[in-house]
Amino acid sequence: MEKNIASLGYSLRPPELGSGKANVLRGLSPLVSKWLVPDFTTFRVSEWKENPTVILDRITGVFHETLAVRSSTDLEDSKTGSFAGVFDTILNVDASNPAEIVDAVEKVILGYKKAARLSSLENQEIILQEMVTSVSLR
User: Fold this and answer.
1) Domain coordinates in residue numbering, the chain
2) Is 41:5 a contact under the CB 8 Å cutoff?
3) Which of 53, 90, 92, 124 suits a disulfide with 69, CB 3.0-4.6 Å?
């Protein structure tokens, strides 16, 4: 867990195409030395709608632990507002269970529709990130 999945070549799309929380995670990962950013990957809602099977295959091939399925929209972490707590994060998703992953991703997408009433969901991102189960401070 020393590098994020994007830096290992498993990103589902180029990092320069991100938004919101996903960009923050991508930017922090190579800069930190005192703590680790849990492994993650991202994809756009449009990519999910086009071919969820390809995305699921990559996720189940790379991740083997419990996941957090998180929102990442350009409305989050912006200069005009944080939108903290407005969008969904689904915790404790079994990375080896495609049905659980599908359910969690669909809940995050539905959360975009409900919370923001976004006119276009296509460019919104989803983050799949390894869950952190315990943290020790030294």
Assistant:
1) 5-130
2) yes
3) 90
Give 117's DSSP letter. Answer: -
pTM of the model: 0.73
Contact 64, 125 (CB under 8 A): no
For residue range 18-39, what is the model confidence (pLDDT) as tens digits?
457 777 677 766 666 666 778 8
Rounded Cα distance between 73 and 36, Å, is 23
| CA dist., res. 100 & res. 55, Å (int) | 14
Q: Which residues of 33-45 are buried (b: 16+ CB within 10 A; e: fewer)?
A: eeeebbbbbbbbb
Do residues 120 and 19 lie in contact, with contact meaning Cβ atoms separated by under 8 Å? Answer: no
- In Å, how far are 16, 41, 70, 101, 119 from 56, measured between CA atoms? 22, 12, 15, 8, 26
Output DSSP code: residue 106.
H
* Strands in 34-134 per DSSP E: 40-44, 66-72, 89-94, 125-130
pLDDT single digits (tens) 119-136 = 678 888 899 999 987 766
Q: At the top level of CATH, which class does the domain 5-130 belong to?
A: alpha beta
